[in-house]
Write a structure and sequence with these properties.
alpha+beta; four-stranded mixed β-sheet; 6 strands
Length: 135
């Protein structure tokens, strides 16, 4: 495994993710932003933030598996959420938890969540991109 996740002393311990990832692999993998499409290109969870977050994370998992990687290899996630407000956090975390349970991911890698005005199509509420390191 090329990634070690840690919470350094002096930073808050967050249950949902770790603050830092240490990468030791030699091959960088960049996963394009994944939206809540299924394999046929149909939006999953229209209007449902938790369902869309779950599908985005599952799609990242599928993309990683396609190159011989897994969430264990992810150094960083970047998440874009349409019209983000802090009151959406419980739905966001619900979607992450459901995907993590299906993928067997604990804890989730470090990430950045950004609020945006819009994504590629009006039905998409969230997009998740990943950077991974593999040997």
């Amino acid at each position: 495994m090329a990634i070690t996740l840690v919470n350094p002393s002096g930073l808050p311990e967050i249950d949902a993710y770790r603050q830092v990832s240490i990468a030791t692999g030699s091959k960088l993998v960049f996963i394009a932003g994944q939206v809540s499409w299924d394999a046929e290109g149909t939006t999953v969870g229209e209007g449902d933030l938790a369902a869309q977050v779950e599908q985005c994370y599952l799609n990242v998992g599928t993309a990683l598996a396609g190159v011989g990687a897994s969430f264990d290899d992810v150094a960083k996630l970047t998440v874009y959420v349409v019209d983000w407000t802090p009151d959406k956090m419980p739905l966001f975390l619900e979607g992450v938890a459901r995907a993590a349970a299906k993928l067997g991911v604990t804890p989730v890698p470090p990430g950045t969540l950004l609020g945006v005005a819009a994504l590629d199509v009006p039905d998409h509420l969230v997009e998740v991109e990943a950077t991974a390191i593999i040997d």
